């Protein structure tokens, strides 16, 4: 009986929506009737010129547009709801949203939006959604910007965005990255510090009504929309109206190059390394039953087997390890060699040790208990006391070779953070190592998630890639023993590694990263000492 009732309700809704939409189209088409003698052309929606016809120099004018299918090239907002569901709510919520995707195809726009809002937001903490909006979504928005619309918005004196999607999903990005003056979107209902999963009493935002409420009788100068009927109503309220066609959004020339981003994309968070469209998300869930055992297998061979066997089996399992350069000969003194690496994941020292075929000791400010237990090499925690850390590293160097990542935290993008100068004071035998990674499904780092899962997520990728480039040993005249200050040595090595990788050097630190992504300084109290939560 329940199934029959659901089927009856579904057919009723489908027929009712179809009849309602047909009736509204007939009714609204009368708006464009000029006279009774011009019936042949009166039923057509007025055609606005393409966005390519609009000039960019609009410094004193107001530009209004929508973010969906206009400012962004993608027509569907499903991937961004999936990011909210997966990164903020977890894998089960993401699976539920994926299972609802067949139903979304047959629902009208408003019903589809309400379903995605309910699944993605119901029971979510407001601060968790804000964190995803600040740390995860901007990367995907930037990669999906329509360059033509963005350039026009950038040249405008005042920028306004009206959208039917929830305001909380887009407002942070629009104001922080695009300097939009006014953002109007659908408001969501909350109870306490949680989202209820329902739209507020004001309902789904109607763009043309919201525009009239904001500007009144004063018409904005330029309106940009897509070819849909509702967008024609929206942009017809402006002095000039332009349309972004589907063909414009799919051409490669509409993609905004990284060098033209309004702000450099240096930090971002989240586990997913791909835009989670329905098909891509389905592929991910189909891969998980294979990926999880595969990651465990890769970890076990790294722990239990000799270097050469581990490398062979790792390659057979899909890991790509590319090694450039050779390990320079060790000097005759008793101290070990200090390897200075760029920091991409927690596994940097492990892959360096495997590439060199010899054991190394890694020093880190923070390491989860799981990572410490599973690490196939010796790891030593630092205390963040410069004197104590210096003494500990000197002792370790007297025992053997040491690897350090002076950035203090990981960075996913082609940038290098500021190098700590402590390492330069401790050793004259310094070997810079440029390390880089490439993943297709999951990132192996996080600022707000469980760090103990970082290696597992990295090794769950079908074909994770690690590039290890061993540069020449630093000449003695460029070390502190040659008269250089520790800061000069650190800055020189940073520039050398940046040039080897093609990365840009910055003065940003771990503190900057965590303030942006997690809203804290990346420091937690552990017993009686303060340790860094980076990596």
TrEMBL record:
Where in or outside the cell?
Membrane
Instruction: Give the source's domain of life in one word.
Output: Eukaryota
**InterPro entries per UniProt:** HAD_RAM2/GPAT1-8, Plipid/glycerol_acylTrfase
Q: Provide the Phospholipid/glycerol acyltransferase domain boundaries.
A: 337-438
Q: Which Pfam families match?
A: Acyltransferase, HAD_RAM2_N
- Membrane-spanning ranges: 272-290
- Membrane topology per record: Multi-pass membrane protein
What keywords appear on the UniProt entry? Answer: Acyltransferase, Membrane, Transferase, Transmembrane, Transmembrane helix
Q: Which GO terms describe its cellular component?
A: membrane
Q: Which SUPFAM superfamilies match?
A: Glycerol-3-phosphate (1)-acyltransferase (SSF69593)
Q: Which GO terms describe its molecular function?
A: glycerol-3-phosphate 2-O-acyltransferase activity; phosphatase activity
Q: Which family does it belong to?
A: Belongs to the GPAT/DAPAT family.
Q: Record's PANTHER family? A: ANCIENT UBIQUITOUS PROTEIN, GLYCEROL-3-PHOSPHATE ACYLTRANSFERASE 1
- What protein does this entry describe? Phospholipid/glycerol acyltransferase domain-containing protein
Which organism is this entry from? Solanum lycopersicum (Tomato)
């Amino acid at each position: 009986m329940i199934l029959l009732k659901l089927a009856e309700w579904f057919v009723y809704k489908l027929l009712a929506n179809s009849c309602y939409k047909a009736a509204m189209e007939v009714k609204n088409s009368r708006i464009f009737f000029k006279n009774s003698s011009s019936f042949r052309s009166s039923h057509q929606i007025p055609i606005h010129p393409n966005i390519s016809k609009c000039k960019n120099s609009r410094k004193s004018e107001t530009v209004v547009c929508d973010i969906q299918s206009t400012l962004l090239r993608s027509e569907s907002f499903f991937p961004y709801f999936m990011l909210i569901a997966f990164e903020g709510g977890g894998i089960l919520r993401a699976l539920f949203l994926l299972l609802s995707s067949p139903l979304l195809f047959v629902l009208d726009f408003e019903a589809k939006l309400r379903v995605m809002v309910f699944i993605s937001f119901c029971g979510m903490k407001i601060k968790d959604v804000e964190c995803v909006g600040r740390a995860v979504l901007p990367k995907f928005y930037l990669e999906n910007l329509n360059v033509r619309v963005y350039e026009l918005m950038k040249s405008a004196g005042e920028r306004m965005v009206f959208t039917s999607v929830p305001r909380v999903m887009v407002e942070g990005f629009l104001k922080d990255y695009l300097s939009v003056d006014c953002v109007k979107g659908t408001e969501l209902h909350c109870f306490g510090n949680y989202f209820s999963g329902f739209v507020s009493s004001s309902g789904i935002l109607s763009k043309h009504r919201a525009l009239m409420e904001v500007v009144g009788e004063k018409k904005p100068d330029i309106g940009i929309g897509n070819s849909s009927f509702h967008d024609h109503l929206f942009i017809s309220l402006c002095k000039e109206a332009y349309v972004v066609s589907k063909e414009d959004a799919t051409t490669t020339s509409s993609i905004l190059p990284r060098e033209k981003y309004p702000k450099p994309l240096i930090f971002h968070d989240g586990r997913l390394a791909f835009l989670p469209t329905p098909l891509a998300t389905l592929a991910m869930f189909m891969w998980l039953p294979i990926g999880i055992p595969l990651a465990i297998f890769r970890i076990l061979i790294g722990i239990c087997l000799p270097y050469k066997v581990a490398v062979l089996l790792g390659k057979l399992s899909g890991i790509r390890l590319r090694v450039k350069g050779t390990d320079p000969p060790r000097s005759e003194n008793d101290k070990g060699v200090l390897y200075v690496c760029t920091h991409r994941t927690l596994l940097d020292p492990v892959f360096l040790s495997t590439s060199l075929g010899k054991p190394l000791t890694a020093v880190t400010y923070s390491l989860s208990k799981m990572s410490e237990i599973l690490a196939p090499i010796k790891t030593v925690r630092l205390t963040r006391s410069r004197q104590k850390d210096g003494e500990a590293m000197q002792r370790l160097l007297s025992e053997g070779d040491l690897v350090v990542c002076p950035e203090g935290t990981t960075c996913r993008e082609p940038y290098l953070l500021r190098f700590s100068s402590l390492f330069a004071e401790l050793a004259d035998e310094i070997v810079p190592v440029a390390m880089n990674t490439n993943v297709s499904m999951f990132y192996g780092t996080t600022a707000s998630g469980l760090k103990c899962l970082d290696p597992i997520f990295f090794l769950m990728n079908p074909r994770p890639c690690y590039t290890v480039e061993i540069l020449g040993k630093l000449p003695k005249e460029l070390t502190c023993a040659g008269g250089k200050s520790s800061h000069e040595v650190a800055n020189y090595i940073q520039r050398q590694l940046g040039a080897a990788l093609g990365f840009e050097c910055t003065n940003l630190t771990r503190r900057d990263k965590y303030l942006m992504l997690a809203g804290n300084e990346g420091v937690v109290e552990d017993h009686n000492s303060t340790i860094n939560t980076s990596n």
